Amino acid sequence: MKRSWKIGIALAGVMVLALAAGGVALASGHLHEGFVKRRVTRHIDAALDAVGASAAQRDAVHAARDHVFATLEENHRAERGDLDAALGLWQSDRLDSAAIATLRAHHLAAAKKTGDAVVQALSDAHDALTAEQRAKLADYLRAHRPPRMDGAKPFMKHMVQEHVDDLLDQIHATAEQRAKVTAAVERVFSAVSDGMSDHAAHFDDAIAVFTADKIDQGKLAALQAARQDKMQKVGDAVVQALTEIHDALDAGQRKQVADFVRSHHSGHGG
């Protein structure tokens, strides 16, 4: 629910929150066969109702939304090959740093592509609405800003650890292996939490950019670059954690983990 809320409100704000709440991060995950898009559309239409948008304005905003989702789906199709490559690396005796760098470059390029689509959608939506409507939209967004996630972090962390523990049980991990894996996961969670810590400030910055008479492309680029920098830091933490976990497990356990990921990935639509 958290992810669909974040995506929905982001695009409901006519792409404003997609930058404020990490729009480039929307590149990850599948689209649940239209479920998320339907939720997004309902939030968008509610926002457009609030500003009294005309039929032509609605068409322009919906076209911007469709471009973002088409980019997400295109990236998702490309990611299927990346997963196979990643699992092949995972099962090798030693992780190939060059191959990992290539996979990360693909991922960051896809995220940049999504970010560019969000920026274009933001510009299109800005130009489709009047100054009065943009001011109304800003008020609407402030009244419907995403909730702070601080209270949810302990629950999220607990859920992650439960899944990790279940998988460690399946592969019959030793106490020493459990300690190493848990420590690696903890560092990743901390990196993700840090990456989410400044969303409130980015929310206000994005609204300021959107409500101006003319979009400041420099400020918009700075917002996008800040999100990409956060993704880079999280990626660094993930690669380090995977390396440590890879080295902590034996070949048979790594194969079990890979088989689990393949099964889980396929069972959730790819």
How would you summarize this macromolecular structure in one to three sentences?
The chain is mainly α and 270 residues long.
Mean pLDDT: 79
Number of strands: 0
The helicity comes to over 70%
Count of domain modules: 1
How would a crystallographer describe the biggest sheet?
none
What is the molecular shape?
elongated
Which regions contain 5 or more consecutive residues with pLDDT less than 50? 1-31
Q: Strand content of the residues, in percent?
A: under 5%
* Rg calc: 20 Å
Please characterize this protein's 3D structure.
The protein has 270 residues and is an all-alpha fold. It has one domain (2-267). The protein is built from 11 helices and no strands. Helix 4 packs antiparallel against helix 5 (97-128), helix 5 (97-128) packs antiparallel against helix 10 (217-248) and helix 7 (153-170) packs antiparallel against helix 8 (175-195). The protein is elongated and about 60 Å long. The two termini are 19 Å apart. 29% of the residues are buried.
How do the helices and strands line up, and which of them pair or pack?
Blueprint: H1 2-12, H2 16-20, H3 35-50, H4 55-91, H5 97-128, H6 131-143, H7 153-170, H8 175-195, H9 199-211, H10 217-248, H11 251-267
Helix pairs in contact: 1-3, 3-4, 4-5, 4-11, 5-10, 6-9, 7-8, 8-10
Essential attributes:
elongated, mainly alpha, about 270 residues
